[in-house]
Design goal:
The protein has 2 domains: 42 residues, Single alpha-helices involved in coiled-coils or other helix-helix interfaces, CATH 1.20.5; 119 residues, Up-down Bundle (AhpD-like), CATH 1.20.1290. The protein has 187 residues and is mostly helical. 35% of the residues are buried. The radius of gyration is 17 Å and the shape is globular. It is built from 10 helices and no strands.
């Protein structure tokens, strides 16, 4: 296994039973334990906080589809040039959409992708929030309402974008490397 980050963090050996079970589920479902989880495993409290927030934002019930949430992750990561998240979440977009071209377009420049009005508005808002959050005004939120997003959906868009802005900085700051499996998946 590649070292998940450039930081030499102490690893727990053995992992607590609940953590090992979670990692085993990852291996069964994904064929790997994502390096981001392994990197956080030096502190079970930090790992649990990270996975709890990730699971709530990306997997819990929402007016946003899983694909839409992954699209947000990729657009944020593209703007921030986060190698780890672009690789991992680009693979998720390819898988969920069944469209490898869409995944690559979002990685390079979401504006080149054939998107419906809802997706375009969501990603335009995401890009603004990522690159100039201080400029967001009511008119920007209204543009999301105009294409069918509820205020709860807008809350989710904002929180997913904010989460990936944070994780991009952690991944970039630690030189976190994506698992090799992501590069090959769903192409």
């Amino acid at each position: 296994m590649k070292t998940p980050t450039a930081l030499d963090l102490p690893q727990l050996d053995p992992l607590p039973d609940a953590t090992q079970k979670y990692f085993d589920i990852c291996t069964d479902k994904l064929g790997m334990v994502p390096n981001v989880l392994q990197a956080h495993a030096f502190s079970i409290d930090k790992l649990n906080a990270f996975t709890g927030l990730y699971n709530e934002l990306m997997l819990a019930d929402s007016g946003l589809t899983k694909l839409e949430r992954e699209m947000i992750a990729v657009v944020v990561s593209s703007i921030n040039r986060c190698f780890y998240c672009l690789t991992a979440h680009g693979a998720a977009v390819r898988e969920l959409s069944g469209n490898p071209i869409l995944g690559e377009q979002l990685v390079m420049n979401y504006r080149t992708a054939e998107l419906d009005a809802r997706q375009r508005a969501m990603l335009d808002f995401t890009a603004l929030l990522t690159s100039a959050s201080y400029t967001v005004e009511e008119a920007h939120r209204q543009s999301l309402r105009d294409v069918g997003f509820s205020d709860r959906d807008i809350w989710d868009i904002i929180n997913v974008a904010a989460f990936f802005n944070m994780t991009n900085r952690v991944a970039s700051g630690t030189a976190m490397v994506p698992n090799d499996e992501y590069h090959r998946s769903n192409r």
